[in-house]
Write a structure and sequence with these properties.
This protein is an alpha/beta fold. It has four domains: 195 residues, Spore Coat Polysaccharide Biosynthesis Protein SpsA, Chain A (Alpha-Beta Complex), CATH 3.90.550; 117 residues, no CATH class; 111 residues, Rossmann fold (3-Layer(aba) Sandwich), CATH 3.40.50.720; 116 residues, no CATH class. It is built from 22 helices and 18 strands. Strands 1, 2, 3, 4, 5, 6, 7, 8 and 9 form a nine-stranded mixed sheet that branches. Strands 12-11-10-13-14 form a five-stranded parallel sheet. The chain starts with a strand and ends in a 10-residue tail after the last helix.
Length: 654
Amino acid sequence: MKLSVIIVNYNVKYFLEQALLSVQKASVNLSVEVFVVDNNSVDESVSMVREKFPEVKLIVNQHNPGFSIANNQAIKESKGEYILLLNPDTVVEEDTFEKCVAFMDGHPKAGGLGVKMIDGSGNFLPESKRGFPSPFVAFSKTFGLSKLFPKSKRFNHYHLGYLDENENHEVEVLAGAFMMLRKSVLDKVGLLDETFFMYGEDIDLSYRIVKGGYKNYYLADTTIIHYKGESTKKGSLNYVRTFYNAMIIFAKKHFKGEQARLFVLMLQVAIYFRAFLTLVSNSLRKLYLPVLDGAIIFIGMYFIKDFWATHYFNDPNYYKPSFLYFNVPLYIGIWLVSVYFSGGYDKQRNIRLLVRGLMVGTVLLAAIYGFLDLQYRPSRVLIILGMVWAILSTAGLRVLMHFLEYGNFDIGSQKPKNLIIVGSKKESERVLNLIYAAQVQKNFIGAVAPKGVDDTKTYLSSLEQLDEVVSIYKIDELIFCSKDISSQAIMYWMTKLGATIDYKIVPKESLSIIGSSSKNTAGELYTIDIQFNIAHYMGQRNKRILDILLSLLFVILLPIVIFFVENKVGFIKNILSVLLGNKSWVAYERSQAQQHNLPPIKAGVLSPIDGLTAMNINEPTIQRLNFLYAKDYMTSNDLDIIWKGFKHLGRNQK
């Protein structure tokens, strides 16, 4: 066996499918075995591999032991002369394996090999070649000196920016996304260090390979796509903490004395510094629109107050200063919180959700009004006028933002992207049907033939003229049919056309179209798979908020409501469990949920079958009720189930 390919997967089914298809093509002229180690995915990755890739050696873990342990599981079973550790969110060229094996065969002192990587926009990924970390290297990376001086040998040693990305080089560190390793070298220096859960294990192994007397190389003769960000979000606090803690483990393991202490101190400072920057960046992205809303509402309330005082009370100073520093902030706070819970900040251009939130907030204000002290109770008219101004001003702000971005006032829809499909007539039609089935709005310009073209009615041009077609028709998005076009050609055009276009690839016979334009986001996916409301962030957040609010309400009304519950002790225990996040008031009927791959949620006290005792509740009925609960989830569904099954709120966990 010449090569053993090992892919560790965690909840990236669609990217894994594409990676395995590219591995199939790259394995044609070599003796290759392929392992997939699944770390307890819940997205049907395992069933997909079993169904579509029966030749793959599948290892299914019942928990997530981490990247290093999972790779080692497969390495111990592998028989190849070379081991390739490959990320699931990658696409390799048809001759990548042959070129890499030939290079390793021709360089007997090569312990490991990495390749040129590009992201989903065709941009070169600098982590394709890296140097060993040191205190100064860590300092330069943490405080941005490596970005300020990308070609500097001193300041950008981390990414070896002074080495030409288009030439082969001896390097220090291999990227974990693609690490081809000589099995005999692994037998000598050891497998991946299982102390590293994720990140750092590639640096550690690269370091041990060099210490063992071997060399690591960067091969620019072949390119792979690494979408990045598919298993973890690079812009998250968890990423910052995990990455730099991995570096601390590396420093303590390989450095001694003052150098180790300095390195660890530098990394600890980096954790807090990068975490601070990440927190600020994430907060600005989330808070800028509520802050703008609050500001324009406040300005409007200032003038509304003066207008009403002058024209109704004939006294410009009728309202006390407390109105501006107490009442107005209170009004704005309740309005904005209501918009938030309504989903107005999740779907920022949805005027309906915005108006609904502001109106609900006004109702809450009217209810609170009577509880305020007399000195803080101005005219109710100001609340109504404030609501009108809030609706008009915030809706106007969104219309303006939409116009500046899309050049039209149709805020209910975005300007469809100009789309070209590169593939045969049959495959292009299949892809177009997938897009329509996924209900994705695109302005389809036409198809480009993968080879020479005589049928000008069917095709815009041949692949050789793709750049001209993109320029003439102002194309925003390209979809490549991998059945008709080689991965090598796809990567060539991605690199040539640049990052101004969105690129996607549709694997042969697949029901998904995959692409990723940013390393900080999970890739964009067009699929006709069922979308579950309960799996969305807004659904999960609202469900948790409802659980907390109901639990607090039950605590306040406990002397009354407890008489309507059968198991009173169990009811109190359930209130505590829900508040602590161990349970939800409503969830699936657990006997069926796990069998049908529904999105995971906390165990519930009640389920969709409660309140339906008049029906014949057989297993197919339970299955359908669970499915519909997940697919069409709304908080009103939970409230309805709780109302009907109120007496069972003391029930033991289902």
